[in-house]
Structures are given as C-alpha cells and as structure tokens.
C-alpha cells in the first residue's frame, strides 16, 4: 500500500526514483475504496489444490478481495468432484455480462498440444477477448501466458525436447516498474512446462515489456504496455511439494522425467525440496493486485475505459 505524504513534499521525487510507492494527500482524498472483484479461470486438473494456492497468495495482501471461480466447461473433472464444481464454480455465461477488477487464468497440462487442437481453444480465446474490455488487468500463468501471447499478439512458443522443471534464478531487466517494487536483483521462481517464448522476440514487440528473465529458463514476467495483461511464464503459486508431486507422477507413469533443477537439497530427489520462491511469489501477486488492479481500476466497474499506463501517470 502507498505512503501518503503532503502535496509537493521534496522527498516524493527521491522516493519515486527508488521505486517506492507514495501518494499525495490530494490523490488519497479522492480515492474511493471497495472490495476488489477477481475472477479465477482454473484450468488445472486438481482444482482444489490450485484454487487453494491462488487464494493463499490473494489473501496475503491488505486488500479485501471478492473471488469468483470460473470453469472452462461443464464436463466432469477426473480430479475434482462434480459436487465441488457445481457448488463453487460458475460458467462463462453466468459472468460474461459482468466487469471485474482482475482475472487470473491458470496454467494447464497442454504444453505439447497445438493450441488449435485444444478442445476448448475457441472458448478460451473468447474469454481472453472478453477480458480485454471487461477486466482491468489479467494475470496469465504458464500455459495461459503462452496461449494469450499467441492469441493476442501472434507470438509462437517454442516446444522443448524435455520438460523445463525446477527452480531458477531470475534477474530484473528494469527496476522502474511498480510490479517490481520490493524485488531483489536476483530471485527464484519455479517452472514446469514443455515450451518457452523467445526472449528477444518478446523484447522487440512494441506492445510488450520483458520485466524479468532467467539465463536458464528464459522470460518470466512480461507486461503489456497497456497494463491490461501480465504474462508470468512460471508458477509463483506452487507450494513446496508441487514439483515433487509432478516428478513422482511422471516417474510412476514411466515418462523418465529429468530431476527438477535446483529444487531438492543437493539435487537429490531422496532429499527434501527447498522452497525459495514463496516470498517473491507473494510479492508478485500483491504488487499486481495493488498497482495494476486497485490503483488503476475504476470505482464504478461499469466504466472500463480510460485505464492509464503507469508511465503516463
């Protein structure tokens, strides 16, 4: 949350240059406050595990957040009971007439499937298109980030020979973005995917900004210049055991997976995993919700026009 300071206080310029969020008394007095309304489109097989991970991150902010859960279709889930889905999830027809402050679209185990071959591809494209007029800011995670970059900007992913799995060190490519406030120069984040985006192609796109990247895992956080779309190529929401559970699942399926990199103590899968990303994962979601949702969204959700990029403020 911002530090409220007197109008024209000399320290304001210094603090802003250090990427510290300050707000003048005048601007603070004109702010209206209400709960943030966030929609989560959950594409992961284990719905309960993923919703818990995301709600944990959203609950780690000082903002009040009202959450709606959305499913991509009404077909039975192999890993989640139909009662849970019917009781807690909405269909798109139930929300298409609404506006939301934020939308989170999760990853999906579809990294080796061509986008057009995904059974709900047309439906997810419809939801992405809808979000550009009905949501202040959209957070795309992992597969959803690749899918949205392809659908919105025509950028192709590169399918990998082997799954990229592990916890990787990342660097900031810029410091003067509200999304990166509080981030260390280097930080860790988990990845679990079969594809990646070309970093140079992302950097050259006039509508996109690469904020963080990894020498080993490529681009991690990419922001549209409109502030409408944040693409995160990894899984900041993962809990400590998630990569191990995926590794054991793939082993049991006879897929001969590589050991997740930089994850187990001594890179030994018989040892305990080390969680080194929870702090920055929480900070990422907190900064997104504060600076790219709360600070930009209209008080009246019926008015989605006029959202101003941070560099123009």
Automatic annotation (TrEMBL):
Binding positions (substrate): 163, 192, 249
Q: In which pathway does it act?
A: Amino-acid biosynthesis; L-methionine biosynthesis via de novo pathway; O-succinyl-L-homoserine from L-homoserine: step 1/1
Alphabetized UniProt keyword annotations: Acyltransferase, Amino-acid biosynthesis, Cytoplasm, Methionine biosynthesis, Transferase
Q: Where is this site: Important for substrate specificity?
A: 192
Q: Which residues form a coiled coil?
A: none
Per UniProt, subcellular location reads as: Cytoplasm
**EC top class, in one word?**
transferase
Q: Could you list the residue ranges that cross the membrane? A: none
This entry's Enzyme Commission designation comes to: 2.3.1.46
Where does this protein chiefly localize? cytoplasm
Q: Which residue positions does UniProt flag as site: Important for acyl-CoA specificity?
A: 111
Q: Which residues form the active site?
A: 142, 235, 237
Q: Where on the tree of life does the source sit, at the highest rank?
A: Bacteria
Catalyzed reactions:
L-homoserine + succinyl-CoA = O-succinyl-L-homoserine + CoA
The UniProt entry, under Gene3D superfamilies, shows:
3.40.50.880
Functionally, this protein is described as follows: Transfers a succinyl group from succinyl-CoA to L-homoserine, forming succinyl-L-homoserine.
HAMAP family on file: MetA_acyltransf
For this chain, the family text in UniProt reads: Belongs to the MetA family.
This one is known as Homoserine O-succinyltransferase
This protein's species is Shewanella algidipiscicola
